[in-house]
Amino acid sequence: MALLMVDHQAGLLSLVRDFSPDDFKNNVLALADIARFFNIPTILTTSFEDGPNGPMVPELKEMFPDAPYFARPGQINAWDNEDFVKAVKATGKKQLLIAGVVTDVCVAFPTLSALEEGYEVFVVTDASGTFNQTTRDASWSRMEQAGAQLMNWFSVGCELHRDWRNDIEGFGGILAKHLPHYANLMQSYGAQQG
Amino acid sequence: MALLMVDHQAGLLSLVRDFSPDDFKNNVLALADIARFFNIPTILTTSFEDGPNGPMVPELKEMFPDAPYFARPGQINAWDNEDFVKAVKATGKKQLLIAGVVTDVCVAFPTLSALEEGYEVFVVTDASGTFNQTTRDASWSRMEQAGAQLMNWFSVGCELHRDWRNDIEGFGGILAKHLPHYANLMQSYGAQQG
Amino acid sequence: MALLMVDHQAGLLSLVRDFSPDDFKNNVLALADIARFFNIPTILTTSFEDGPNGPMVPELKEMFPDAPYFARPGQINAWDNEDFVKAVKATGKKQLLIAGVVTDVCVAFPTLSALEEGYEVFVVTDASGTFNQTTRDASWSRMEQAGAQLMNWFSVGCELHRDWRNDIEGFGGILAKHLPHYANLMQSYGAQQG
Amino acid sequence: MALLMVDHQAGLLSLVRDFSPDDFKNNVLALADIARFFNIPTILTTSFEDGPNGPMVPELKEMFPDAPYFARPGQINAWDNEDFVKAVKATGKKQLLIAGVVTDVCVAFPTLSALEEGYEVFVVTDASGTFNQTTRDASWSRMEQAGAQLMNWFSVGCELHRDWRNDIEGFGGILAKHLPHYANLMQSYGAQQG
Amino acid sequence: MALLMVDHQAGLLSLVRDFSPDDFKNNVLALADIARFFNIPTILTTSFEDGPNGPMVPELKEMFPDAPYFARPGQINAWDNEDFVKAVKATGKKQLLIAGVVTDVCVAFPTLSALEEGYEVFVVTDASGTFNQTTRDASWSRMEQAGAQLMNWFSVGCELHRDWRNDIEGFGGILAKHLPHYANLMQSYGAQQG
Amino acid sequence: MALLMVDHQAGLLSLVRDFSPDDFKNNVLALADIARFFNIPTILTTSFEDGPNGPMVPELKEMFPDAPYFARPGQINAWDNEDFVKAVKATGKKQLLIAGVVTDVCVAFPTLSALEEGYEVFVVTDASGTFNQTTRDASWSRMEQAGAQLMNWFSVGCELHRDWRNDIEGFGGILAKHLPHYANLMQSYGAQQG
Amino acid sequence: MALLMVDHQAGLLSLVRDFSPDDFKNNVLALADIARFFNIPTILTTSFEDGPNGPMVPELKEMFPDAPYFARPGQINAWDNEDFVKAVKATGKKQLLIAGVVTDVCVAFPTLSALEEGYEVFVVTDASGTFNQTTRDASWSRMEQAGAQLMNWFSVGCELHRDWRNDIEGFGGILAKHLPHYANLMQSYGAQQG
Amino acid sequence: MALLMVDHQAGLLSLVRDFSPDDFKNNVLALADIARFFNIPTILTTSFEDGPNGPMVPELKEMFPDAPYFARPGQINAWDNEDFVKAVKATGKKQLLIAGVVTDVCVAFPTLSALEEGYEVFVVTDASGTFNQTTRDASWSRMEQAGAQLMNWFSVGCELHRDWRNDIEGFGGILAKHLPHYANLMQSYGAQQG
């Protein structure tokens, strides 16, 4: 499984209105933490980052310093960028996690392209944002219809972890950081364990 | 038909935010009442119940004192627990009702696993909860796509009952307990019947 | 094409909460007007109408005085009532419009049964109501999955009318009665025509 | 008590989006029925009815054939029209019910004017509509601040009726017509009374 | 402090649509539990209970078997019923908790009457219901304007209890029964205390 | 690819309530700008434009002065109009973009007809409007089921543009005009570039 | 009456999430058109416009080329800027219309300051935006409490116009531009007038 | 000005449902950062922290290691705890910022008590949470009525900062941390400044 993070750029993020700003920031960083924790090969890409779209979110750059990174010169569909596709192929994975901004374009286009080439695609819905819920619903429908599966960062993490015993503290730490109410449960629990 | 109640635990329940607390409690207990009324073989399971996830809801334990109960040591997907799957198979049923917390993981994972093994799966949507409606919608989509059917506790009950004449009072009693407005109808009716 | 009106009963209607009371009343009566205008064979049925479920809405009885009417003695799924099914077959139609209360049971069950027997089913979604939107969404999903098409009373009317020239005043009169804003357009138009 | 119905015109009604069309039509006609039932002096007025604003809703004209009716030549605030104010004064009432379209202008302006002249004003909120809920909330706030009381057609009716025994059938008939679920209660009740 | 429970009748309850049925039932019974726990003098009243409005909710009757109970022959405003007002005065309290169905009439009218006579009135908002949120907002505004304070059953209970040490188990028991998530906290806590 | 703009008429637009008026106007004009920018063959049609449905939105007429334009004499489904279908065929395109008012009829009917004849249909969801969200959801479901893909004007534009380098200023100009927040990004960017 | 437009800057606008982007842009420009049409003295101000807050929206600058314009060097509350206050006083007006971004700071602070100095303040609520509806509600409450009146651009325009006859075309033109459905009414009307 | 942080405890937080978990966590920590930045005397208190209510959120303890901290033995209203009130008085401030969980009790009770003793109270609405929006609205109303002003953490910060020039980086750093979209603006700005 490989993760494609598409166009999480400072300017484009201001367009996202199907999540509250805090929720969306948290979801994107949670997905990144999941990817790092499970050593998922991750590929970053941006479009026109020197213009109004703005630079990639700095936290993502810092979290994946060695990941392939493609500042696309103009292609809207990341899959139209040969270097990007080569990098995807180089991972050797046939299952792709895709998240990005905006959902109906930066996520939907490479999703449809990858499905066409035989990849199994999992859209990480809550780390992908767009203009409003109506647009989101329509784009989800289009991707489902083509065969993509809709997931969220938490279910991605659980599917990768499979068994709490593999590393309780590591995985629990991610949940504590990104699920405030799970952190509360842990804290109440810990307080009693003394 | 068998019923799988997955991870309705005191801690995890605090994460459920796609239903009001009263609605969700009522839905879960209504499903349990339905299962008992129709003698549906029921299997209970929890994950990590000694930690922050907390113990199974006590009402469920009390209602199914003799049901197979699996406190999974670590597997996130209940279907990864061999004892659990053996118990499912032991029911001899090929139709499964699945409800749990959270929908996108504790329900979706065993649903997908069971469908793959040829079971017909009915997700009891209103006795299953998760973080928010966006996550719910995405997980419903994934399960539908794989072939699961989405039901609610009331339609499950009606499908099992088939004919009011089979036991009017018994079934009516469940509705009176879990559908406040149906209780009102019965009371107004009864008041006039004198 | 035949229309099945299932369990629009005074008691059950108080359970409907996915539409405002005014909207729902208007939608049901609009569908009835459409059926009468196009002489669609219509079959009425109720369940347990002497109990809390209450009598059929009186307007429907008055509008279809000669329609086959089945007060089911106990069957929850109208399709389990032999007389009802015989009446459906007697219409000779293979396309069925189904509306009822509540959507997840009184509509979904006969819809699934009719689809299984090879009928083409059109659920009239806005003349069908249930407990809340979550339940509606799940039941819509189940019916779609089985092959039902989701329509609304207005699109049913338009599909039957096909061409305004067939009877402008007749069809326009139905719209004026059931679409307040279309009535406004007609009135503004008429005022100018003088 | 006198009732002022301000600018319920076919064109302007298409701007109302803080109520569903069916709900709003029902509310306006219910208020009119209440006024007639209690013989409340009622004054009708429109603005620019020969232009895009359109004619007054025909049902209102028919229900109040003898009511003072002022087609204002241009004044936006009905209270700026001397004839209208004279008619209000001629009722001899110091309590005014005001409803109209749109709430923030056609209701708010005469409400503020009447309050200033010492009238006690009751805004009938659900027979008054405007562009959206944000605008409604702001205009409610402005009127409250100036001393207006916010009511709805049902509470107006109940305040006028005071005691069911004054005329059960008459008042009940209005409720049956305009509160579908109250009609259901009456029908279920009647069915049992036989 | 005295509690007035106004018109929580089986028929009228079907009109309440600003709360989910489960939430509203829970809120009304929680308020009743609070009143009993603190021995608040409680007065029950209904309007026209032999007609479509239906009988008082049976749970309330059972919980307050000795409370003054007034089946009003016709007065819509309970304060128009002399016996009811006498009973209120007989409590000797000058602070009144009022809850009822529907908010804009059965709660608002006696609230305004009691305020006029110098009582301090606390409306228990979540044990009072009405047709929709718009109507609720307007009626809240009217009562606030007249000086009523808006509370909810939980804050009423906390204000009466003042100090947990007065009776931890008793008060905790009410919370466990009516706040499902507080019950979860208690259960998780108890599980660890072992 | 060809674009069919169906029944965006002044009267019918007043029925659209699943978008705010400003949003919908913007979406329709944005789609038109996209079509012109990419020289998409565009066909306009109206139904009964001399009656209450009203004339086509003037901006559309002005933007496509030379486009085939069919004022249908009575056919509700544009595909029932032979001239219209001939014009579609004359474009030689097998991919159709369809937008219109109302979604469940004026969009859904020609969409189903075109799909049946082997066209690939892309519904432009945000330039299509109807009575409310429930009706929209049902009609989307019906069209998806038949094979239509749901898009929005922005994703249509991006799919056609493919690469920013093809004409940055032209495409950027459309975004600046129809995505206020993208305009803000461009303005902030420009201000710094000085 | 004077109008203060506070901090409608490209960067800050991306924070506004209590209105859709199209709605908000339309509202701000509509208010500006109203101010120009009625020759309301208008004062513009920005905060830190060389930094991330970004430049004032260019349309506003263009519409008020000669208006006093204060790029505040650092004061958050515009009223803390002496030049700004002097300009307000120089208008000689005691009634102020205030709109800005964000409502809870850039509008609320000068509103409270102006009220304290004896001005009568009208907040133009729909040309003022902030982070979310909760924040908006709280800030509205604070301003109301201090005596501000809440209006919207349409009611401001109507209050200034008072009588349609003063300039039908001029005022109608503004409505046609900023109220799409009013434009539709005018177009339908005009089409018939021929 | 002094800040009172009341009952932000791990258990109680699971009851908060009028904010998303991410939003609420962010708001509480933002308020804490504001208080530290401006050296606002801060007082922390909890109720029954050894029981199900759980320990205070650890971040708050860490951020205010030297703040007066009162683990109340039983008093529900923090103002009933003499030590707490003494600490408030010891600050010498007459203006209080109050935030807490749940709004209707832990915030409303000390707010009413403090107002009664002549303090000026500012409720920090978005760092205070409760069961649902209905409860929040009612409790806001009660506090407003008693004279409290409703603010949010951002407006508190801006009111304290008054002028950006006082410390651009410090205050900007808080905004960057707690307003994701302001961080985006800063990042886009910085990228261009190079």
| Percentage of residues in DSSP E strands of chain A | 5-15%
CA distance, first residue to last residue of chain A: 40 Å
Helix proportion range of chain A: 40-55%
Query: What does the radius of gyration of chain A come to?
Result: 17 Å
Structural class of chain A: alpha/beta
Mean pLDDT of chain A: 96
Categorize the overall geometry of chain A.
globular
Number of helices of chain A: 9
Give the number of DSSP strands of chain A: 6
Greatest chain-chain interface?
A-B, 28 and 29 residues
Oligomer: homooctamer
- Biggest sheet strand order of chain A reads 3-2-1-4-5-6
Write down the secondary-structure element order of chain A.
Answer: EHHEHEHEHEHEHHH
Provide a descriptive summary of the structure in words.
Eight copies of one chain form a homooctamer. Chain A has 194 residues and is of the alpha/beta class. Helix content of chain A is 51%, strand content 15%. The first copy, chain A, contains nine helices and six strands; from the N terminus they run E-H-H-E-H-E-H-E-H-E-H-E-H-H-H. Chain A has a six-stranded parallel β-sheet, with helices on both faces. In chain A, strand 5 (120-124), helix 6 and strand 6 (149-151) form a beta-alpha-beta unit. In chain A, helix 2 (21-37) runs antiparallel to helix 8 (168-178), helix 5 (103-116) runs parallel beside helix 6 (133-146) and helix 8 packs across helix 9. The radius of gyration of chain A is 17 Å and the shape is globular. Chain A starts with a strand and ends with a helix. Chains D and F meet through loops of D and loops of F. Chains A, B, C, D, E, F, G, H: One of its GO terms (molecular function) is hydrolase activity. Chains A, B, C, D, E, F, G, H: Residues 2-152 form the Isochorismatase-like domain. Chains A, B, C, D, E, F, G, H: This is Isochorismate family cysteine hydrolase YcaC. Chains A, B, C, D, E, F, G, H: Keywords: Hydrolase. Chains A, B, C, D, E, F, G, H: InterPro entries: Hydrolase_YcaC-like, Isochorismatase-like_dom, Isochorismatase-like_sf, YcaC.
